[in-house]
Each structure stands twice: as C-alpha cells, then as structure tokens.
Amino acid sequence: MKEPVKNLKRGVSSRRTFLQTGVIGGAAAAIYPALAAARAIAAKDPSNASAPEIPPFELEEMTIDQLQADMKSGKYTARSLTEKYLQRIHDVDKQGPAVNSVIELNPDAVAIAELLDRERKEKGVRGPLHGIPVLIKDNVGTADKMMTTAGSLALVDAPKPPKDSLVAAQLRKSGAVILGKTNLSEWANIRSSHSTSGWSGRGGLTKNPYALDRNPCGSSSGTGAGVSSNFAAGGIGTETDGSIVCPSSSNGLAGIKPTVGLVSRAGIIPISHSQDTAGPMCRTLRDATIMLGALTGVDPEDSY
Asked: Average pLDDT of the chain?
C-alpha cells in the first residue's frame, strides 16, 4: 500500500492542499491542458486569494487503530469524533471547495455516538469499529430517518425500507456510527448508457478532491471522494463492474470488491444478481480489512 499523499516527497501536496489548489488549477487546465497533469505534482501558493480557506483538521489521515487508541486513552470520544467529522463535512463538502460527496447526513449520528460512549464505559468495546464514524452509499437501505434513493428523485420521499440492509445492520452491530449517505452515479451507473460518473439527479455532481475539475469515478464516487477528503474514517461502496475499485483508485484509497456471497446484497438496490456486492473503501488496506470483517455474515435473504 502506498504511503499517504502528504508523506510523498518532491513537493507533492497533502489532500488538504489538493482541495485548496484544485479550484485554481481547474481554470488553468481549460486554457493549458498540459497543466492538468502537472497540477497533481506542482505546489501552489496557498495564500492565493482564489483558493478556498479550509480549516486545519486534527483527524486528517487518522486510521481506525489510531482513533480507537485515542478513544481508549480518553483523548476523544465517539461523540467528539462524530462532531469533528460532521464539521469537516460542513467546511469542505458543503462549503469551501464543495466536494459534494455526502448526499444526506444522519440526524441521529451524535445521539448514537453518545450511546456507544456510554456502552464503552459500562460494558466495554464491541470491536475495532466501536464508535468509528463511517459513510455508506445511498443505494444501501437503512430503516432510519435517512432516505435510500440511489440518487434518484423518483425515490425521494418513497416509503422507508422496513428494516436495515444486512450491511447497515452489521455496521451498527459492530458499533460503527453511520454519519450519512454518499452521492453516487444515479442508480449506480445503470440509469443510462450516457450517464456521468459521480452525478445524480438528487445529489448533483461529486468532485475529485485531488483535482476538482476531474472525474472521481463511479458509481461509488461519493464514498471515494468523501473518505479521501477525511469526512469519515471509512466508507461503504457497491460494485457491479468497477464501482468500488475505480473510485478507490481515482481517490487514492484501498477498496475491496468482495467475492459475491461474502457480503449480503439484501436491502441494496440491485443491478446484477451475479455481480453485485458491497465492500469497504478506506485510506489504508488494514482499515479496509477491518471494515470487511464487520460486513461479512450469513444471510438467508441472499441466496448466494
């Protein structure tokens, strides 16, 4: 697994600096296409007035193990982590460079985190995801206050799923805090043969945090851009044909497309009975394997 972007040498910017400079480079690339390739390795002046200001983020590039260690020591709580990631989403996804990766926030996230903090004190830790904030793709069904629309206006205000998909249920069982749902290529890129990766009618267009004028790849574009931008410790995507591995690659993540049958598809808006599967998308391979372990399980509602 390659080192995080911020640790590379020869002046390559951190993820935060990429977000700041991507807006500037976008206009230049339209005039001088050759600059587009250089933008990812050329340091820009962060004092440029055109660059959106992004507040420093103390959880940048933090792994699941590091977050757990800090909760164990008392430095953070599940609630404080949740609030910090929510603020990060507000500062970077909705304002500033406006990555536009999160389609909806979970209004109960802070309350859920508080319950997990209490459980940690009274009963101990469920496992490595206890209190860890995560994001899930908007085609993964949840029986909570959030909608499940696959990015389509046709499903806005549709009846809620009667119960969580097993993926969501397994995350909750592991103690993860579901912060919200991520944008995607509408209907997971099956809407049209001419669909645009990262665009949905409900969510608009998701941007690549490394270069805001570039494609984040689909269909799990929101999860890829959101995790890469440090909006959560990890995220869930789904894949029929490249929709986990492509946005993971384009956004500098480790993504795992599990063998069909390892992770239940029940409760996820489908495309292909023989190819669909959900999987983790994280900043490190270790984080991705931790999330994958939480997702696996036998489900009689999935014939595979």
From this structure: 87
